[in-house]
Amino acid sequence: MRETITINGGGLTGLSLAIALRKHGVAVTLHEAGTYPRHRVCGEFISGVSHETLETLGIADAFIDAKHHCSVAWFSGNDHLRDNLLPEPALAVSRHLLDDRLQKSATALGVNLQTKSRRQMTPKAPGEVWTAGRKPAKGKWIGLKAHVRGINPKAQLEMHSGPLGYLGVTPVEGGWFNVCGLFRMRRDIDARHEELLPAYLSKNGNTELARRISTAEWREGSFTAVAGFALGLQATTPGMLSLGDSHAIIPPFTGNGMTMAFQSAETALPHLVAYASGEMTWDESCAQIAKHLRTRFEKRLKSAKLIHPLLFHTLARPLLKHAPLKPILSLIR
Q1: Which helix (H) or strand (E) holds 302?
Q2: N or C: which end of the chain has fewer CB within 10 A?
Q3: What is the pLDDT of residues 140-182, one digit of tens each?
Q4: How far apart are CA 17 and CA 271, in angstroms?
Q5: Which domains does the chain have, with CATH numbers?
């Protein structure tokens, strides 16, 4: 291989792409602004990813002990609306563990991984890939996440909704439960740091869950928050190849965000290998990747955008209670 691929952003997309490229003999430099291991705002619930995708990327072993979840309980306010079984099990593993495993695999394969390295976008630079997550934008959302113990959920995934947003609860490794939510930002909520989670839940009408979380054991350092982002397709930078959340952020209720990170890397892989081997120009490779990303993700992004607002309205409670699960999942997968 005669060309090096430079990846900016060491999250799921960047790490899995780096691993896959090295397995094809491509030289890779990966820049990550932070360090490992670390907690990230993430539902840590991977729904819709295939074993074939994980094998193609060379990362299937990282999920060898991941939890497999099928049961779902949905709540609106404090009311238990319904129980379901997913047609296919979802995988659950914390980003604290998964990212660390992937970065160790990447390093072992010869990826030149540089942590604490924050890079600026360089549009039209051949071989430069941007996978650094959300692009800063004026948005109305805040994402909150923590690991807790002792909350006794009623299913392997609890979903709690209300007029401000929604939050999922799911077990990950070590007896911890991931609690992660997306809410409309409210300036009248007088809370800081860990207090934000129960405060937003209480404002959202999920007072029983707020009580359970307030009295639970919290994993040290696991609380994280993020704001200043937009859902859907992200703002484009002409001449910059963006993948993963840098390309598009699907609403988290789908459970498909982590899956799209891996699928984004899988989609780009053959075209980046072709560029590195001299079989394609950089412009040709980027054009092919953009085309296949549209084909793969357009339907689910549009469907999620239509469904997402319904989760915030009390008038949609009959939909949450009675809508068939499989047809909805088929739209957002």
Answers
A1: helix 282-307
A2: N
A3: 999 999 999 999 999 999 999 999 999 999 999 999 999 999 9
A4: 12
A5: 4-64+92-137+229-310 (3.50.50.60)
